[in-house]
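Researcher: Go.
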Amino acid sequence: MKIALAQLNYHIGNFEANTEKIISNIKAAKSKGADLVVFAELAICGYPPRDFLEFDEFISLCEKSALTIAEHCQDIACIVGLPVKNDVLQGKDLFNAAYFIENGKVKAVTKKALLPTYDVFDEYRYFEPATKFQCIDFKGKKIALTICEDLWNINDNPLYVSIPMDELIKEQPDVMINIAASPFSYTHDDERIKVLSDNAKKYNLPVFYVNQVGAQTEIIFDGGSLVFDSEGATKAEMKYFEEDLQVFDLDEIENVKNKYPAAPRLTDIEQIHDALVLGIKDYFQKSGFSKAVLGLSGGIDSAVVCALACRALGAENVMAVLMPSKFSSDHSVQDALDLVENIGCMHEIIPIKDAAEAFDNMLAPAFKSLPFNLTEENIQARIRGIINMAMSNKFGYILLNTSNKSECAVGYGTLYGDMCGAIGVIGDVYKTQVFQLARYINTEKEIIPVNTIVKPPSAELRPDQKDSDSLPDYDLLDKVLYQHIELKQGSKALIAQGYDEALVTRILKMVNVAEFKRYQTPPILRVSPKAFGMGRRMPIVGKYLS
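Model: Structure:
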């Protein structure tokens, strides 16, 4: 039996485009001699559909698309994910399901049992967990079909009634097929390979795993679909961050070595780079936008975001706005201009000195000669936010936010100023990783000026200002933040690791106090195991210092 894995980029709710893409790949798989072509979890509607699932018409359109797809399954079968109605009066209205379609008809329906409710997942909000499982007979083989989490065997949640493969293995299947929507993080590829390999060995069966690719607002899918033999050896690894269609012979997976070449493995920084480029590209394409604007300060964050945007959208579609103040150094302006020259994007220079002075004069009576402080610094940041939004409104540009994760974590940013934007490009990338990204972007030639990379970070909102005036050194800050945010380590655990108690208390207090700001930030492209946004839900008024 020849099995095709179709690793595609879906668009949530775009039934026409998704259906057309699925049908096109059915035809392509058929032309390559495939007997069966496999598509991802909820492929028909896109993942995650969230509260779209509460609309009856949405579910009806899923079924209508499935029937259209079925018409094209002649002399080839397909497996495709979609939500289906729960006809039983008890429980949730829907199942997260997959159709097995053959000769124009739905021959079997598989339903998901293990519904994830952690991090970015909230499937139990919408779906009823399945309790009955049955293999699919096809061309003399028994297929154990599971959906994403069902092959991760997480059974410590009381919502999880049973593990599907423990039931399916009783029917002595010949192969496991798992369809998934597995979000990207730069640590997830190795974890995913290990889990699937362990399942292949546990059940002594080959595994065919298909993931989707593409970005759905902040969630990015990296592809990397996989095939394992019954001993858990990786037999094929499909492309990362690209659509891909490959056909595999089930007998050769078990009996032929090195038949299918694996995709090249990427370093963490390479993965983050490719994920962010894809995230920007899909956000714009799927939202119907084409041009971006950002403030370009001469600093490392805006330089990296500008370079990523140009790679995603084309330099001709990116507008960099330089907004020097009376505190801006000559080298910062020159660094920004050098980047523009290196990268070829559009740019405007709009000084803010006069606007800042106008605000100073306007507010002087109310401020009653109080000294210059954070207030005036924030006014400058907000002037820049107004200019960026004006450029966005006037020319139809979409504003990219350039705040990094370190700043987002400790609240080192100005609401309605540098925190403006439609999408946060590097809000899940720590400052130390931003420097690594800059060096990676410069691998083949200098794009980001070297001076931008080596100079001390500064917001340049007062004379000789440096980030280190307000924050611990980034090398130390990011280590504490990673332990606290990604690894969920509290103050006692951090102090036990050897971090200074006063430093830990200071950092964790800044993280907690800044929660109200993070509630007002744009969606952030998720590249880590724990990003700010939908996957990290903290109370604003909480006082717990962890």
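Model: Residues 374-395 form the longest helix (22 residues).
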